[in-house]
Amino acid sequence: MGDEDWEAEIIKPHISSYVPVFEKDRYSSGANGDTFNRTPASSSEMGDGSSRRDHFMRSGFASGRSLGNRDPGESNKRENTSTVGGFGVGKSFGNRGFSNNKFEEGDSSGFWRGYQDGNDSEALGSSRRGGRGSFRGCRGGFGRGSPNSDYEQDEGTQRSGGIFGSRRSALSGAGNGDTFQSRSGGGSGRGGYKGLNEEVITGSGKNSWKSEAEGGESGDTQGPKVTYIPPPPPEDEDSIFAHYQTGINFDKYDTILVEVSGHDPPPAILTFEEANLCQTLNNNIAKAGYTKLTPVQKYSIPIIQGGRDLMACAQTGSGKTAAFLLPILAHMMRDGITASRFKELQEPECIIVAPTRELINQIYLEARKFSFGTCVRAVVTYGGTQLGHSIRQIVQGCNILCATPGRLMDVIGKEKIGLRQVKYLVLDEADRMLDMGFGPEMKKLISCPGMPSKEQRQTLMFSATFPEEIQRLAGEFLKSNYLFVAVGQVGGACRDVQQTILQVGQYSKREKLVEILRNIGDERTMVFVETKKKADFIATFLCQEKISTTSIHGDREQREREQALGDFRCGKCPVLVATSVAARGLDIENVQHVINFDLPSTIDEYVHRIGRTGRCGNTGRAISFFDLESDSQLAQPLVKVLSDAQQDVPAWLEEIAFSTYGPGFSGNARGNVFASVDTRKNYHGKSSLNTAGFSSTQAPNPVDDESWD
Ligand SMILES: Nc1ncnc2c1ncn2[C@@H]1O[C@H](COP(=O)(O)OP(=O)(O)OP(=O)(O)O)[C@@H](O)[C@H]1O
C-alpha cells in the first residue's frame, strides 16, 4: 500500500464506530435510546455511520494492499450488507483481514507495516465532527427543563450570538489539519481551536493526544446535530457514595516528603476534625469512606481555607479532587450558599475546569457526593452533549460549574453563566490546562467580562505533573503570593505502581500483548496506544483473540465512549484500549494493570497513564513496550522516573539513555524533564517535611515573587 492510499483513508471522517466482538449492538437499544436521535434516515448520521463503518473495515482489517482501493460508492453497499454494531465480528471482515473469525496475520502485517510507516498520524482534524465522547454522561439535577428550549437545536447553529461569537476564528489558526501530528513528525505544530464547543487541540510532535482530548465537533457548519443527552447518574444514596477501598499502602502516604513554598503558609492539618467542616460535609466524607486525610489534603485544605492561591502537585490517585472540593464546599456551606432555580443567568461561586469530558464528569460526581443533602448545587457541562440539555441543567441552579473549556466558553457566550460571583477558579490537570492547547482558552476565560481579577478570586491548580515552563505561565493566573505544595517528587510516578519496561519492537507488540493479557486473565487492564486508529485496530484484534475488549478514544461517539467505560468499569470488558484521552484523572476501581503498547512522547504523559492503576494506596502494575526505533528519546526521563520511584531500571535502558544523550544531558525538550520544585527560584525559604505535618519554614516576603514572573 502506498502512503497516499493510506492517507486517503485516514482523512475520511469517522473511523470508529466499533463495537467489540463480545458486545451487543448498542445502537439499537442504548440506555438512552429515547433521547438519542440516531435517526438512520438523517443524512448526517447515515452518511457518517456508513462511511465510518466502511472506513473501519478498510483500514482496521484490510490488508495493506487493499487499503484505499475502493470506490466511494462502496460504503453504501457495505452499509446495506453489514449490521450496525457488527464490528469485530470476524465474519464481517471475511474477505478482508479476517477470515472465519481469524485474523490473517499475513495480510494484516501488510497493513500493519503500512500503518507503521509513518502513516499513523491522526491527521484527521479537518474531517472530524462532533458529538463524540463522554464518560458515563452522568448528569445530576432537579429534573429537566422545558423541552422547547431554544437550545434543543444543533450546537452548530447556535454560534452566532453571544460575546464569544468570534472565538473560533480567533483561535482556529490554520485549521485542524496541522493539529494532529504524526508520531514521527516531531513538529511543533501549534494547534487551533478544535471546533464548536470543543476544547482546544494542538499537536506537538508525538504528543498528538491533545487532539484526543475531546474528539469533537468540526465546525459550525460541518458538524451534525449534537443531540446526545447522557442518562442522569443514579440518585440513590448507595450509588452516590459508592467507593472503593483504600489499599495497603494508604498509610505509607504519611512518609512522603512534602515541600511547601511561598510566603507564610498555614500549618498542615492532620485530621478531618481539624478542618472544622460542617456536620453535613463531615457526614458525607464519612459516607464516602474517608477516615484519614491524604498528604495533599492535609496541606491544601488549610491553604484554601486560608484564602490563598495554590499550585499543588501530588502523585496520581492521592486525593487531589477532595483536596480542593472539601474546602470550597465547606466555605459555601458555611456561607449558606443556596442554588437558585430558574434564573436565566446563573452565577456560580466556583468554576472547575478539566481537560477531558470523562474527567470533568468524574469531578462533578465527587462534587455532587460531597454536597449531598445541602443546598449547594453542582452542574456539569461538556462538549458532545446537547447544549440545550446543559443549559437546562444550569438554569435550575448552579453554584459549582464543572466544565470542559470549550463548553464553558459556550455557556458563557450564551449568557447563561455569569462570572461575577466566582470566588474559586479550579484548574484540574492544570499543566494540561495551561499548555498551548488549552492555554488560550484559559486566558480567554480569565479575561471574560465579569470574571473577578486574580486578586479578587482564589485560583487553585492541581496536577501530578508541573513542567517548569507551565509553572511560569501559571503566574498569570495566580496571585503573586500563591503557595506551592509538592507532595514527593514533582512529576514523579506513584510508587505503588510496579513499573516494567520491556524492549519490544513494533512487529512483536501484538503477540506480546496477547501473551501478557492471557497471563493477566480477567484483571482490569488499560492498554494505551498512540493513535485512535490503532486503538480500534488493537481492540478489534484482541476481540478476535477472544479477549473481551473495548476502546475509548476521541473519534468514538459519546454514547460509545460511555458504553466502553461502563463496560470496563463493571468488568464486562476487562480490557480497555485507550488513547491518551484516558490518561489523566480517571479513577476506575480495580484497574490492576496498565500496558503502554506504545509509549507516549512525554514523560509526564507516561506518569499520568500509569497512574490509572495503583490508586489510593492500592498496588498496580505497568508494563511498557519500549521500541528502540521510536522511543529512545524517552529513555533518559524514564530512567529518572523509574529510579525516583525506586523501581528496577533495566541495564539496557540505562545504556540507551546515556548513549543517546550522554551523562550530561539535562533534557530540555518539552516534557522530557520535570520540575523538582517550585520554579520560583527566588524563594530561599522552603520546607521539607513529612506529612505527619509540622510547620514549614517561612518563605521570604512575597515581593520576591514578582521577579520570576
Ligand atoms: N482521604 C481519603 N480517604 C479515602 N479515599 C480517598 C481519600 N481521598 C481520596 N480518596 C479516593 O482516592 C481515589 C483517588 O482520588 P483522586 O481521583 O482525587 O486522585 P487524584 O490525585 O486526583 O489522581 P489523578 O492525579 O490521577 O487525577 C478516589 O477514589 C477518591 O475517592
UniProtKB/TrEMBL annotation:
Biased composition (Polar residues): 29-45, 688-700
Compartmental location: Cytoplasm, Perinuclear region
GO molecular function, one term: RNA helicase activity
Assembly with partners or alone: Found in a mRNP complex, at least composed of TDRD1, TDRD6, TDRD7 and DDX4. Interacts with RANBP9. Interacts with RANBP10. Interacts with PIWIL2 and MAEL. Interacts with BMAL1 and CLOCK. Interacts with Tex19.1 and, probably, Tex19.2. Interacts with RBM46.
Keywords: ATP-binding, Helicase, Hydrolase, Meiosis, Nucleotide-binding, RNA-mediated gene silencing
Basic and acidic residues bias: start-end ranges: 71-80
DEAD-box RNA helicase Q domain ranges (all copies): 270-298
Entry-linked SMART domains: DEXDc, HELICc
Nucleotide-binding found in the keyword field: yes
Swiss-Prot/TrEMBL GO biological process terms: meiotic cell cycle; regulatory ncRNA-mediated gene silencing
Extent of Gly residues compositional bias: 132-144, 184-194
Tagged with keyword ATP-binding: yes
Stretches for region Disordered: 22-234, 688-709
Motif residue range(s): Q motif: 270-298
Positions of the Helicase ATP-binding domain: 301-484
EC numbers: 3.6.4.13
This protein's name: RNA helicase
Catalytic activity, as annotated: ATP + H2O = ADP + phosphate + H(+)
Biological source species: Bison bison bison (North American plains bison)
Record GO cellular component, one term: perinuclear region of cytoplasm
Similarity annotation: Belongs to the DEAD box helicase family. DDX4/VASA subfamily.
Domain Helicase C-terminal stretches: 512-657
